[in-house]
């Protein structure tokens, strides 16, 4: 038998041995490895090849290679099954441990500050404050859905005189962009004078909606047990920590809009009144921001002064 053929058979057996070792290392902890092929076994195998005929070498080498290939294929198949089973087990465990969302009418459970898994609810996800459903078969009215008493009859003359009274000019304020407005506290004072403290209120008619930049909610103005008006308030915010304050501003904004139906401060929506008031009581001034040094033009009442962080300046000037 030629030495080349013997060398080829020997190298073939060594390749099979190395493949077996790699298979053992790749499936550690997943499948029990086969019996290791030691150096003594390798020497014995080499001697057996050296004393065999060419035909026997071919048969033994081919059979050994086929056997090793079968073992490797079996290892790969079994390893794939084990990995698939582990993935499915982990997915099912994660699904079973996922918290079920609580209904909107349930009170939120207090968070355990000692638990490392407890997380603070983000206000940006919503306030979970849907109005409660009231059984209308009783004497209580569900103001979240009802229009009870709307336009049933006019209010008493005393209340109407307070609501329709022209607002004093000294109560009117102006925003830096020139928009006239009445502070929300003065709307509340007018309602208190007309209906009495406790004789009116704002009933939410939906859940607070929190977007990336603003808060909005619909409210109903109720006075003396009757629905007066429905309006949606809105208020911008700049950080999640400001959402509660924005929710209060949203309520006040809805109240001022509802008061339009009662005629409160209706002058502020009259274009002619706005133009006349602006010409007689408003001035334009150029100001500079104390920190950023940016200059701009603002509007304010003639009897008012520029306040910090702005200071009055002469025109836009030049930028360095």
Count of helical segments?
7
List segments where confidence is low: pLDDT < 50 over at least 5 consecutive residues.
23-35, 104-120
Strand content: 15-25%
Specify the helix fraction band: 40-55%
- Which structural class fits the helix and strand makeup? alpha+beta
Number of strands: 9
* Cα distance spanning the termini: 97 Å
What is the succession of H and E elements? HHHHEEHEEEEHHEEE
**Average pLDDT over all residues:** 78
* Computed CA radius of gyration, to the nearest angstrom: 42 Å
Oligomer: single chain
3D shape: elongated
Structure, explained:
Helix 1 runs parallel beside helix 3 (54-97) and helix 4 runs antiparallel to helix 5 (184-195). The chain is 40% helix and 16% strand. With 320 residues, it is α+β, with helices and mostly antiparallel strands. The strands form 3 sheets. Strands 3, 4, 5 and 6 form a 4-stranded antiparallel sheet that branches. A 3-stranded antiparallel sheet has the order 8-7-9. Strands 1-2 form a two-stranded antiparallel sheet. Mean pLDDT is 78; it is low at 23-35 and 104-120. The radius of gyration is 42 Å and the shape is elongated. The chain has 7 helices and 9 strands, in the order H-H-H-H-E-E-H-E-E-E-E-H-H-E-E-E. The longest helix has 44 residues, at 54-97. It has helices at 3-26, 39-50, 54-97, 157-164, 184-195, 243-259, 271-281, and strands at 173-174, 180-181, 200-204, 209-210, 214-223, 226-236, 282-289, 295-301, 310-313. The termini are far apart.
